[in-house]
Amino acid sequence: MNLQTLIDAPNMPILPNSSMVPILSNHTVTGGLAHATTASPPIPVAYLACQLYLCHNSGKTREDYDLELARIVLWAKPDLVVLAGWMHIDQMR
Known about the structure:
Layout: H1 3-8, E1 23-25, H2 31-38, E2 45-47, H3 50-56, H4 62-76
Parallel strand pairs: 1-2
């Protein structure tokens, strides 16, 4: 199942009574992200890549990046987190 399928799922019997919270991606260009912004209703999209985060936040570590990801996910209060295409190993403690 890819991101576009998940975006379309709330309008189909596969996931009745569901909605998407903001999509967080570590890649800026994907077809799914473009589809999210044109979905009805549009789904907010955020981008946070590890290398970019570390370059723009002097003194921050990979652990800080993982904590920032966790902060964003917790803020969205999802019932379910799907790592569709996420190519990053989280250093959970």
